[in-house]
Amino acid sequence: LASKLPAVGTTIFTVMSQLASELGAVNLGQGFPDFDCDPRLLDAVNEAMRDGHNQYPPMAGVPALREAIAAKMEALYRRRYDPLGEITVTAGATQAIITAVLAVARAGDEVIVLDPCYDSYVPNIELAGATPVRVPLTPHSFRPDFDRIAAALGPRTRAIIVNTPHNPSATAWTREDMLRLQELLAPTDVLVISDEVYEHMVFDGCEHQSAARFDGLAARSFIVSSFGKTYHVTGWKVGYVAAPAPLMAEFRKVHQFNVFTVNTPMQHGLARYMADPRPHLDLPAFYQRKRDLFRQGLAGSRLRLLPSEGSYFQCVDISAVSELSESEFCLWLTREIGVAAIPLSAFYGNGFDQRVVRFCFAKRDETLRSALERLSRL
Ligand code: PMP
Ligand code: GLN
């Protein structure tokens, strides 16, 4: 059988988690919390099930959840999305992104991604029959390079996928970055898929710069987020997308035939839980403390810490520790030191000249301490 995705193997996250579990290593590779969610959220889902919310919900999602999402976005980003026609609940951000790509990109179109990028984007674009155009972020500092983005824009550009806070680099776009993007796209009809799954993890008092805050971007954007990240329930696979009605109409044409709907009791439970904004408002401080604990623990090692402005990731430069490539180093680290990490090369096409690996600090303090103890040998 001729593969539709010949360059694709098993994702690095699956590979490293499997290896970590086989070897009993501390798994700071794949991004997921090793602690439980708020028991009130579990109660809310259980209540929803007992209340009989166990059949198909409306295709676009449970109305109360869509209303709660609209209220949260309005409170944070000062833009009102109509829950009826502008918000859809998805099976995680992963489904939101591929559905948006399939809805807008076709053969002959180009879709820009900024390298390094989350590993599903490029295969998503290829499955749509469109051509991915990889534009590098600035070397070492991972900032958007607007001259290179401008040079990549052309008559065939259908969309650009942006991601802030950024996986894997843990950088976050500034207001000026968003204004530059808005200005650059103003004369075009290029759409934006804005992956904002780490919207509630921005540190040091900075604010998340959602595309929803900017009129010119919001008008052309699918804004994607994920309850898995925000409420520590990555296994639930519930997320959402917000977009202006004409874009959402196209999104739903695809959504109804790839998942149709997302599980009902979780949606009801999430809607009830979202009535209290504290869980997402408290998240930056919660993760900043873990980030700082992890950074302080590494300060004495020869791993060079890169900035972590947002997300639950910390990248380190391994040059002073090892001659190995990023991926060989991650295998060695898992086997010999007992800590799993993710090589940045997994997020690139060809061509990168740095030696950086990513750790996830969404872990219990004792997990982080145990990893730090092992890493202190480096
Ligand atoms: N985008 C980014 C940048 C991510 O890091 C992730 C999760 N690792 C996703 C999308 C997918 O989110 P979900 O688990 O909700 O499908
Ligand atoms: N998004 C998570 C990460 O970057 C992993 C999700 C997955 O395993 N697909 O680590």
TrEMBL record:
Pfam family membership, one: Aminotran_1_2
GO cellular component entries: cytoplasm
Cofactor(s), by name: pyridoxal 5'-phosphate
Aminotransferase class I/classII large domain ranges (all copies): 26-375
Keywords: Aminotransferase, Pyridoxal phosphate, Transferase
GO molecular function ontology, one term from the record: kynurenine-oxoglutarate transaminase activity
Family membership noted in the UniProt record: Belongs to the class-I pyridoxal-phosphate-dependent aminotransferase family.
Protein name: Pyridoxal phosphate-dependent aminotransferase
Species annotation: Ramlibacter rhizophilus
